[in-house]
Structures are given as structure tokens and as C-alpha cells.
Design a protein that fits this description.
Blueprint (H helix, E strand, L loop, with lengths): L3 E5 L1 H5 L8 H12 L2 E6 L8 H7 L4 E3 L4 E4 L2 E5 L4 H13 L4 E4 L4 E3 L4 H9 L19 E5 L4 H13 L3 E5 L4 E6 L4 H9 L9 E5 L5 H6 L2 E4 L5 H6 L2 E2 L7 H8 L4
Parallel strand pairs: 1-2, 1-11, 2-3, 11-12, 12-13
Antiparallel strand pairs: 3-4, 4-5, 6-7, 6-8, 8-10, 9-10
Length: 261
């Protein structure tokens, strides 16, 4: 039986600037498991993107696609598939304005096209851009989209218009280059609820680490929400505790503070 469950965002939380799990965090994760605490990744990324991180850490449970997919010990227990009518309407609207979109299943992804925003986005996360396949939505069950809009006045205005025009979807500003898009009501917090409804995890204390806007539902859903020292002010404001910066042992320090390691 698990004594607790701890959820970890990735970028600027569990990962360093090279998008690797630093040795101090790997050591902390191993100590958690030795103490019968279940570590869970909670990310906007898709499951297939986590292979190297899972191999480095031994973590096998994850909330991915901002809650669109949930995995427990490697088993895919939940998926929120974006419906084809919504996808077609969304892709037609973005194409009409020459806005690029990335489409994600739990196994692969594809882009509608390349531009500077797509190039910059994948460079930031140290990934090769997905291939171009505008019809990928016809081949796979999609739980996540990225709409590439810059984090400036023009991009934010366009984002607000898409949010207004697509109330059946939820938008998270998750980088300087894009919004994450999932079904309405889906979040890392909803993914946590689904995971915790599994018999082995019911009633187990929960902790969650994050720094970004899409982490707010996660931190609010946890018994103890922990903002990184580098978190946005709105994230820190809703947290129960703020630890140190991700570059300054923020995760090990907080786990020790709560006697989890």
C-alpha cells in the first residue's frame, strides 16, 4: 500500500534546462519509492514523449496531455479523445488564418505545417519537430492539440477569440509559442481525480509540484500543492507551500520538508 502519491510537472520543475532529470532529483525519486510513495509525472506532453524520462527515473505512472491521458504503472486507464467534428471545425479555423497546429495522440504527433513558432517551440524543448500530416486526426485518437500563437498582444488576442469560438475546448498558455488545447473540463487536476479513483490509491495523501498556469488545477486538487521557487506569481498564490527554484534543489528540499524522503 502506498503512503502517499507525489505528482511532478516536468519543465522547470522536475527537469533541468537541458530537459534532463538531474541526479539530485533521480536520487529523490528513488528515495520516494523506497518509502512506498508513488511518483507520478503530470505534464502537457504526450506519453510517447516520456520514454527517456521514464527510463532515467523508473516512473511508470503519468498524467499526460494535460489530463487527456492517464497511465498507472504503464497501463492506459483513461483517454479523453477530442471529437472529429470539433477537430475539423478547429483545423478549418486555424487554416483560414494560416495558424499551425500540432496534433497529439499518446503514441505520436504531426503538424499541419512549419513556421518560426513551431521551429522555436521544439527547439525550446529539445525535440525534433513532428512530421507534417494535416490529416493525422483521421488516423489516430487525439487527446491534445497545440495552437501556435506568440505570447504577445496579437497572439493573446487571437487566443481569446479561439477560446470564445470553441467553448467545448480548454486552452492553456503553456509556452511563449503556443497554447495547449484539450477537451473542456480536462486538466491535470481532473487526471489526478481519475488516477486516485483506482482502488490502490483511494484515500492516499497527495502532493503536487508545479510552476506554470496549467499546473494550477493540479496544485489545487492535491492535498498539498507545492509551487516551485520559479513559479509564476498566480501559481505561487494558490499553492500551500513554495519551495526553492528548480535549479536549486527545489524538489529534494520540499520532499525532505514534508518527511517524504
Amino acid at each position: 500500500m502506498y503512503k502517499a502519491v507525489v505528482f511532478f510537472d516536468l519543465d522547470q520543475t522536475l527537469l533541468n534546462d537541458e530537459k534532463q532529470v538531474p541526479p539530485e532529483n533521480v536520487k529523490a525519486l528513488k528515495a520516494l519509492e523506497a518509502n512506498d510513495v508513488l511518483p507520478v509525472i503530470a505534464t502537457g506532453r504526450s506519453y510517447y514523449e516520456l520514454a527517456d524520462i521514464m527510463a532515467a527515473t523508473g516512473i511508470r505512472s503519468a498524467i499526460t496531455a494535460n489530463g487527456g491521458d492517464v497511465f498507472l504503472n504503464g497501463e492506459h486507464i483513461f483517454q479523453s479523445v477530442i471529437g472529429e467534428p470539433q477537430l475539423v471545425r478547429f483545423l478549418n479555423a486555424t487554416a483560414a488564418q494560416d495558424i499551425q497546429v500540432a496534433m497529439y495522440s499518446s503514441e505520436a504527433s504531426a503538424l499541419t505545417g512549419y513556421d518560426q513558432l513551431t521551429t522555436d517551440n521544439y527547439a525550446q524543448v529539445h525535440q525534433t519537430p513532428p512530421p507534417i500530416n494535416p490529416k493525422y486526426y483521421q488516423e489516430a485518437a487525439l487527446s491534445l492539440l497545440l495552437i501556435f500563437l506568440p505570447w504577445n498582444q496579437t497572439g493573446d488576442q487571437l487566443g481569446k477569440q479561439f477560446i470564445q469560438d470553441f467553448p467545448e475546448l480548454t486552452f492553456y498558455r503553456n509556452s511563449h509559442f503556443s497554447f495547449d488545447v484539450v477537451n473542456h473540463g480536462i486538466s491535470k487536476g481532473s487526471g489526478m481525480s481519475i488516477l486516485l479513483n483506482q482502488p490502490a490509491l483511494r484515500g492516499v495523501p497527495t502532493y503536487a509540484f508545479g510552476d506554470g498556469y496549467n499546473d494550477i488545477p493540479l496544485l489545487q486538487a492535491a492535498d498539498t500543492g507545492i509551487a516551485m521557487g520559479n513559479a509564476y506569481s498566480k501559481v505561487a498564490a494558490i499553492a500551500d507551500y513554495q519551495t526553492d527554484d528548480y535549479r536549486k534543489n527545489g524538489i529534494p528540499n520540499a520532499l525532505a520538508h514534508f518527511n517524504l524522503i
